[in-house]
Structure formats: C-alpha cells, structure tokens
Amino acid sequence: xxxxxxxxxxxxxxxxxxxxxxxxxxxxxxxxxxxxxxxxxxxxxxxxxxxxxxxxxxxxxxxxxxxxxxxxxxxxxxxxxxxxxxxxxxxxxxxxxxxxxxxxxxxxxxxxxxxxxxxxxxxxxxxxxxxxxxxxxxxxxxxxxxxxxxxxxxxxxxxxxxxxxxxxxxxxxxxxxxxxxxxxxxxxxxxxxxxxxxxxxxxxxxxxxxxxxxxxxxxxxxxxxxxxxxxxxxxxxxxxxxxxxxxxxxxxxxxxxxxxxxxxxxxxxxxxxxxxxxxxxxxxxxxxxxxxxxxxxxxxxxxxxxxxxxxxxxxxxxxxxxxxxxxxxxxxxxxxxxxxxxxxxxxxxxxxxxxxxxxxxxxxxxxxxxxxxxxxxxxxxxxxxxxxxxxxxxxxxxxxxxxxxxxxxxxxxxxxxxxxxxxxxxxxxxxxxxxxxxxxxxxxxxxxx
Amino acid sequence: xxxxxxxxxxxxxxxxxxxxxxxxxxxxxxxxxxxxxxxxxxxxxxxxxxxxxxxxxxxxxxxxxxxxxxxxxxxxxxxxxxxxxxxxxxxxxxxxxxxxxxxxxxxxxxxxxxxxxxxxxxxxxxxxxxxxxxxxxxxxxxxxxxxxxxxxxxxxxxxxxxxxxxxxxxxxxxxxxxxxxxxxxxxxxxxxxxxxxxxxxxxxxxxxxxxxxxxxxxxxxxxxxxxxxxxxxxxxxxxxxxxxxxxxxxxxxxxxxxxxxxxxxxxxxxxxxxxxxxxxxxxxxxxxxxxxxxxxxxxxxxxxxxxxxxxxxxxxxxxxxxxxxxxxxxxxxxxxxxxxxxxxxxxxxxxxxxxxxxxxxxxxxxxxxxxxxxxxxxxxxxxxxxxxxxxxxxxxxxxxxxxxxxxxxxxxxxxxxxxxxxxxxxxxxxxxxxxxxxxxxxxxxxxxx
Lengths: 449, 449
Known about the structure:
- The structure is a homodimer.
- By secondary structure, chain A is of the alpha/beta class.
- Chain A is 24% helix and 25% strand.
- In chain A, strands 6-19-18-15-14-13-11-7-10 form a nine-stranded mixed sheet, sandwiched between helices. The first copy, chain A, has a five-stranded antiparallel sheet with strand order 4-3-2-1-5, covered by helices on one side.
- The radius of gyration of chain A is 24 Å and the shape is elongated.
C-alpha cells in the first residue's frame, strides 16, 4: 500500500508516511490533509491526499513545490479520542429549520464498529479494473483516521460479503452481534454494509431489535474508499457522529444527502430505499424526510422535523431481541402477463407468506384471484404492497382492491422490501395465524406510511 | 346524471342544462365554466362547474346570487372544431428554455380517440364510495367539451378494462387498432388507459409500432372525472393538443407535471414509470426529462431539450407493425432469501425469457448462479435490470456482475418494466437465439438509458 518510485523518494526525503497529516504546496494551490495509501499498479507520479471534506485528491509530483509534515499518524489498534470539543461541553447550539442542532458531545463516547463487507470496505483491484472486497479493521482506520476524534472505537470484522449474498440468516447473526455489543455498554453501534441490500438489512434489524437503548447505524459507500470522490469516509464519519452523540435510538441508515459533498442523511431503517444504482445520494427516505442530517465539516447533527417519533437514547433500556426470520416468504412483483401458477408453485413448496408488489393503489389482475384464494386457503399470509414505491396503499378505492381485501389479502401500507422482511419476521415470531395477522397490522418499527 | 331537488329547480328556472357554459355569481365570487353532471346519490344543494383550468368546483346553491347562460352545449356525436386559432396560422411562438414553443396549429387536425378503460373514463359509485368504470365516448365528451376546440375527434371504445387486467394480448389488440387508425389518415391517436400498467402498454406499443408517422399518446387520470380536482380533463386536453399539433411521432404518455394545475408532461413510452400510487404527477421520466410540456391555459406545447431524438411527424411514413408478444417471459425481483428454485420452476414450465430485477448495478446472490446457468443451458434468455429504478446498469464493476456476464446474462440498461416488455416482444419476433440477443441489445425505441 506504500508508494514507490519517484513518489516514494519524494516522501522519504520529507519524512512523510501514509497516514500523516501533510501540507502540500503546488505552483497554484495548497492542499492540507492526510497522505493516503497507493495500491499495487498505481503510477508513481501522484500523491493522494484526503482533504478535510473527506474527498481524495491526486496531486502530480511534478507540480509539487513543497511538502510539510503537519502531524504524525497515530498508530494504535484502538484509536482514542484526540482533542476535546472546541465548542464546550454538550451545549445545545443554534436552532435549525424546524429542528434542534446538537453540538458534538465532548464526552468520550464508545462505539462498536462492526463490518460485514461491501464497497465501503473494498478497494480497486487494479489488475481487473473492478473492485474487490478486502477488509480489516486496521485498513478502515488507515482510510478514515478522523474517526478517532469522534469516539473510542472498537472494530470487529463480523463477515465479508457483498450484500447481494446476504440472507435472513445473516440478519440474525447481525442482530445477535448488535445485542452483544449493547450488553457490553457501547454508546452506539456502526455497521458497515454493502449498499445493494442495506435497506433490507436495516428493516430486518428494526424488527429484530426493539426498544434499543442507543442508535444502530448502517453505513455503506457507493464508491470504494481508494477512489477519488469516494463517499466512504464522509458516510462513516456521519454514521459515527450520529451513533456516538445523537439523542436517538433505533436502527438507521447513514448515506450521502443530495449532491453536496459534506452532508450525510440519517434514514429510519424501515422507510428507506436504494433508488439509484451509482450516485452517492442513492438512498432516499420514502414519503418522509430523513430524521437528521450531519454536516461533516462542522460535525453538527441537525435533527429534522418528522412524523416519526424517534425515541431518545437511554442506556438503561433493555432491548427486546427477536432475531429469527422465516425464509418461506416470497416477494412477487406483478406485471401484465404474470402467470398465477407461480403462486400455486409457492403453495406446493410450503411457503407461509407472500408479499405481492401490485400496481397502483394495490392491485393485481383478476386472473390471479383463484391462485390467491388457494394460497389463503392453504394458510399462506398473502399481503399487498405497491410497485409505485411512493404514495399510500388504498385498496378500498377500486373494485379490484375491494375484491382482494374480501378474499383476505392483508394490505401492508409500507415499502415492499420492508413488507417482505416484516412477514419473514412475523412468521418466525408468532404462534398462530391470528397472532401473525395482528402483528402484521401493528406498528412495530415505524414501518407504516 | 341530471340534477334533482332544489338544484334542479334552480337550473330549470334559468334554462341551464348540463354541458352548457354558464356564469355563476355568489356573494363573493364569479365562476365561469361548464355545468357538469351530478350522479345518483349526490346531494341536491350544489352545482358542479368545470372551470377554465379543467378543474371542477362545487358551488352551494344557497350562496348563488345569479346564474347566466353563456353558451348552449353543442350536442353532436362527433364534435367539430369550434372557433379558429386566435394567434394566427401555425406561426412559431417565442422560444422557451432550451427548446422551441409551438403555437396551436390552426388547421383542423383529425384525432382518433381510442378508449380502453381506467379511471380517466370512470366515475364515483356513490353507493360504495369507490370508483367503477363506466365509459362511453359520449360521456367522455360531456366531461371534456374543450376537446372540440382542439381537433375533429372520432371516438371509439376498444375495451373497458382496469389496466391491472390487461395482458400482452391486449397490447396486440391496441397495436392493431392504432395501425388501422393510422391507415385511415389520422393526425394523431389518443388512447385513454388505466394508469396502473399504462407504462407497460406504452413500452409495448413502442416496440410493436416503429416508424410511426404521427404521435400515439396514452393518457390516464389519477382521480375520476367527476371528482373535484380530477386530472382527467387536463390530461386529455394535453394529450390531444400534443397528438394533434406537435411535430413529433412515436409513442408517449401524457400526464400531469408537478404540483401545477395546468401543466401536462409528455414522456417517451419506454422511459416512464408510475412512481406514486395517487398523486396527479405520478408518472415520471426516469433518468431523462420529459420530451415536452403542454401548458393547458395557453394551449402551448414547449418541446424540451432531450438526449432522445424524437422524429418529427410525416404522414407519408409507413409504420412497421410487429404486434405479437410471447408471454413465456417472467420478471423476477431479487431479494435476500430469494429461492432459486423459482427459476428452475420457470425452466420446467418452458419459459423462454427471464428478466431479473437485481440489486444495485445489476447483481443477484451467488446462490442463484446454478439456476441461472441451468436456465441459459435450456435456451432461456436471462436478462438483468436493477430494482434501484434510477441510474445505469454496470455489470463490469463488481465480481458478481462479471460472473453473471460470463455465464451469458444479458445486461439490459433500461427500466425493468420496459425490459420485460422488450423480451416478450423480441421472442415473438425473432427466429433464433442469436437474432433475439442481437435485437435485445439494439436500440429500437429509445429504451436504453
């Protein structure tokens, strides 16, 4: 990961090592930041510096006039909080629009950082031009040294999976690990996660872990941490600040907000979706605002007004842990030409739950009615959501919806992905159909729109 | 549909009938518009007036000071264009941002209005409080008399279905009907359609009908035409204006744009999606701008700048019609816990195509790899899209995507709904797997992002 060739000689002559804070002057500019590692086949004619806003910049060594060492990297396994808060002890700052602004707390919070894989912990494989997952807790530190100024952080590698490979079993493992961390007394838990299915996992943990005493924040990156414009550092800083200091509890996702470089949004775990394949602000709260925004530069958390009642933190609270999921649940997106025999197939396979992603206000073709009746007759929980993504489910407006309701289809006015996870969870944690239906229709983790 | 009780007596005393243009004065206001019908169990204490902007308002008869008859309704089966264009003959007006503004053409265009069902042609059933489809061409006219000032319109009821009940067979019927109308020489075709699957149909017609000489515009409504705030009239007016006068050809969807009352957006048929269950601006172009916006008040069409090359109209052009679809194609949305045996089931049922709605840049779990290999070995076309909805598909970035590509999965960088329809169409219109793959990867109707 070190430099070589001309770049190496230049750095060695100045006594600068990867991880040090340095000031680099070129003919036109001055860059102040942390010297980042270079990988394998990278050229030897550029230095990479992580700037204060979290972004990396490559500087051609031809253009460098001087390099000055600003601060030596601290090499500790568990990096302790460096420097006290400048603004005083936990005072509440100025009010933002509609919400309160919380200054970074000066007490040394303790965070558990649990990594599960994904781009946030990956780097470019220069041999293939693609990205592969390579992760140790130490590597994460070397990439985001700023974390040490936020809290005392204990890192642990729980698994190393692209998130498309995660299953409900992995959700259970994560829920158990979070429980363990909570009983160890951490002030917050940050879970690094691949973005592809992060919103499924955040729903799963929201149902599995109720009455949480502290925040559990899932965080990912859309661009790997060794790329210029990577969002890994800002997202991780935002997640850690919120987990360490926000007066909130529950399960959240922290990811870039909008096109700005230095704002990270906190989304409620059951109300968020990956809506873009590649942009840094791919995650969006659906039909509500994010619960908070972290300004990375000022390290401020702005709590936004919300219809959702996020409870404050309370370390004396004991979580309710129900971490099992029943995989005999299918999500089926309806479309013109959909073959109802798919539903009959699920019946024959012993499926216990079916979430339909219907059209509009919650509809499927009348061609499906017989198969749906068969499913309900065979004690399958059949639920309806909408593929529109936005807007309320309203099955009483049209004949089709009313017909489906009268057959016993359960309207789940929530995101299809959240509904799938909830049905999996309800079926694993109820002892009768009546109890399951009642749990399905109860608000458990702010999942209803 | 007529009034009764006090309302009836008031109207009779003034000689005003449903469909007439009237001026109603209350103590505070003056309303100028068309007297709308009232239905069945409605109260007898309000008149309903359609205002110039297309919206209905209910006026309590207690508040009415005077009613004046402005213009008698014209009772014609085929209403002819009334009044000439005020702004002159087809002059090009002022330029809008980035595009050109086209004044309403003064020549009498001929439009074919084909109705297939849905909310735009439905009304509230006051006995149930819901909505049911009741449609005749005459009713449509009585609801939107303004259509007569746009063009000579011939209306035809092709089918009466909620759009969730439509199948690829119905797409074929619509394509054949449009072809018939084109050969009759119409200047444009407007198809009223339920909104739930309107974007599937617009994709289907885009592939089935190439080299169209004139615009084919699908239009729906999110609120039935007898409700205050119905968008039926504005959408229909916007669709008709565009179909009659815009210098464009191809298949489009016309629906409300944004929160404004009087703007209708024109979307390219393969690039649009219903993204909200209930709002009037539920339809959105994905990753591009709409191709045009119609201002209903001024009757102006503003063509927007676009990456897509929409061809102008040319009535001498002969369309290529390939209206068949193969229903042995499934769309499967991937999720954590997805059971790959669903794919094996499709193989056993003789499916010929599978569109996966994967995660992120185009991924599914490695648990699915064997089933996908089996599908490809059995000559099934297996294609990938993303459930993110927005953003490009990029299967070369991560190992998972590269593995899937090397197995033979076809990356379709388009909306999942469009991809499903395209595979159905390609399989019905190709004679070999090679030809099918080549058609899949060719740009046919601006479907690629």
